Structure prediction request, 266 residues.
Amino acid sequence: MPSLATWNINSVRLRLPIVLDFLSQYAPDVLCLQEIKCTNDQFPRKALADAGYRHQAVHGQKGYHGVAIVSKHPLDEIETRGFCDIPDSRHISARLDLGHGPLTVHNFYVPAGGDEPDPVINPKFRHKLDFLAEMQDWFDELIFDERQLICGDFNVAPHENDVWSHKQLLRVVSHTPVETEALNRLLARRNWVDLVRQHIPIEEKVYSWWSYRARDWEASDRGRRLDHIWATRDVAAKTRAAHILRPARGWSEKPSDHVPVLVEFA
Prediction:
């Protein structure tokens, strides 16, 4: 059955072996990557094409950020969008068909926001809030009415069961009320469906990110669900399952701090 995955890989060239292992084991039709940390010409196109992902849309930059979509199916209408008048590579979109007609996939890497949750003294946090606000304004456009899917590292864990401790993280960037409220406004803007929570009950704690700072990430299990896949309701109705691939956090000696999130379509 068709499937789509999103993964903040934190350097695609450094972690290419585990990307190829993932593609071999899970074989998603589409993989959206964030933080590829390379320019377009440095992207490992041949290795991914040899793995069956000949169709590629890449929006990279030197050393930082960068997003890409690789697919078994043809991609067209490939576009990128800038945010906040800052020339970062944080968005790419493409249209494809997974068997239910044309679907536009938007891949986002939302700014992390730094350490201090105060937009007055922390420009990185201000940038994050401005980025989310600009996304909200963009979602008012009619192109987001149907046949749309957005995914990526949103750098916000919106629900109390998306973090290891709701109470202790209320003043920690990624789970502060101003961020979670902003993301929930986005979710409501076009009646997006959070596909992970459509298939995994909100009462269940689930995470997609564990800090590198933890000596033993699995034992401490202080995670956050920062990676998301949302869809318009017509697309959401055609999904049958969602998975957060927790074991990927330990797939190598130097894994990404994020794991893949995957949705399956009927």
In short: The mean pLDDT is 97.
